[in-house]
């Protein structure tokens, strides 16, 4: 009977560790994908800025317009002390191309 209890605890510990590892790996992969997507959109806004002389892509401009709006929203959240995916590095990149 004692062995069954020990086995059950060991199994639970093993499953908990596997779930933790899976969640950690998933989180890391998601962060990587988010960074890749952000960098791709940043390249798009650089092209937009070069063509139009500004970074104020309207929502009607498609995905880049929505992305621009989202960057402003994320910046406001950061300024308000709320959870945001805006980082100092992203702010510097955006400011380097005249994004406001």
Automatic annotation (TrEMBL):
<feature type="domain" description="Helicase-associated">
    <location>
        <begin position="35"/>
        <end position="99"/>
    </location>
</feature>
<protein>
    <recommendedName>
        <fullName>Helicase-associated domain-containing protein</fullName>
    </recommendedName>
</protein>
<feature type="region of interest" description="Disordered">
    <location>
        <begin position="1"/>
        <end position="20"/>
    </location>
</feature>
<dbReference type="InterPro" id="IPR005114">
    <property type="entry name" value="Helicase_assoc"/>
</dbReference>
<dbReference type="Pfam" id="PF03457">
    <property type="entry name" value="HA"/>
</dbReference>
């Amino acid at each position: 009977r004692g062995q069954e209890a020990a086995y059950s605890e060991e199994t639970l510990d093993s499953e908990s560790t596997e779930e933790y590892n899976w969640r950690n790996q998933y989180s890391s992969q998601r962060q990587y994908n988010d960074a890749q997507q952000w960098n791709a959109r940043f390249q798009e806004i650089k092209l937009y800025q070069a063509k139009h002389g500004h970074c104020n892509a309207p929502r009607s401009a498609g995905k880049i317009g929505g992305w621009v709006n989202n960057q402003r929203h994320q910046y406001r959240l950061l300024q308000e002390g709320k959870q945001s995916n805006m980082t100092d590095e992203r702010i510097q990149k955006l400011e380097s191309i005249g994004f406001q």
